[in-house]
Amino acid sequence: MASYTNPSSIFLSIFVLICSISSSEEAIPNNNGITVDLIHRDSPFSPFYNHSETQFDRNMNSFRRSIARSIHLGLSTNTEQVPAAEAPITPDSSGEFLMKILIGTPAVELAAVVDTGSDLTWAQCAPCQNCYDQKPPLYDSTKSKTFQNVSCESDQCKLIGQGVLECDKTKLCRYYVSYGDGSTTLGNIAVETFTIGEASGTFPEVVFGCGNYNYGTFEESMSGIVGLGGGSSSILRQLGTSIGSKFSYCLTSFDSNVSSKISFGSNAVVKGDKVMSTPLKKGASDTFYTVTLMGISVGNTKLEYNSIPESDSGEFGNIIIDSGTPLSIIPKSIYEEVESVLVKAVKGVRVDDPRKADGLCYKSPENGELDSPAMIAHFEGVDLALPQKSNFVEAAKGVVCLTLVPAGLYAPINVLGNIHQRDYLIGFDLENRKMDFLPTDCSKPH
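The structure assignment produced for this chain is given below.
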């Protein structure tokens, strides 16, 4: 999520809710794997839920978070240098989905931001010299029998890479992360016992950041971050073979009365006759899940896209799969083609974009649904039908807008956002270097 040394990084992401978790000293094998709830930030079940917000407010905020997220991802890879003072959107630091885990012995429950766009897992720790107000009980490392600081010369410290501070006389491994909204976390790198899932088990000696100085706009309902990126310090990489280096999720709409789910290990295997797979490619960062977008179909019109030079031999991708970005951000050249085809096909009254983004917007039809052609995103080996109800959403009263956004200075990274991942079981498989997609009614058990 954040670039550990770049002060303009932006803090966004996912929360995962985990209930009734057991604790022990060793990892407990479980052939059934791990499955837990994902709570969207705008769900009535979320501690972030704001009863005073309208649906228009939530849709507008999701647009702002999408742009802020893309800026962050671009800054973290230095693909675009956007001065923070020029950024049109103030970053939101409370994430997209909600998770709870247990940490320590005796175990303390934490609500942490889980992020597919960052690797370092950190938690707010007591004794805390300078911390933000936190509703859940504060994890006190001095009361845990399994907590242990690590040396700045240790392999665990080297695992973190960027964000580690220079060794001082204490010889402790220290980290510092700064976010674009001014929020920061500073503390020790340590190892601790983490427990995930109701019937799964406990994982000892997980490397994480114990934050004793945490300042900024962090939500009081959160306790830290769980990094689910593909980098070396990611908790996914650390748990490795014990969870098969894979996870999957199935996202419902945020107003559903059924929670989304995230699975690890054997539960994360995506299987079935209709499974589609695309290879993971090299990207701007090992953290990101990068794939290759080949084109987009609008109705019967297929629009090709190829930004990969022939000399790269297909090693590099051009778009990332990210659960922390609400809307999808696509290359400007193909966005303009998509918009052109839609303008010809949609029979509606076009209006100005209330988001001030020069996007494609129409007056809402009386029946509430815009009659627009189906769209399919074509990846290498995958034809992903974008959920029809997600392609246009109400951005203001009486106005619906396209949920595809062109990449550019203020949205420098191409992203398949979570709004277009709904009702697919999506597998992130680092072991086999692939992404799996299976059309699924995520509101039903599977």
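Interim note for the steering committee: The CA atoms of residues 256 and 327 lie 18 Å apart. DSSP finds five helices and 29 strands in the chain.
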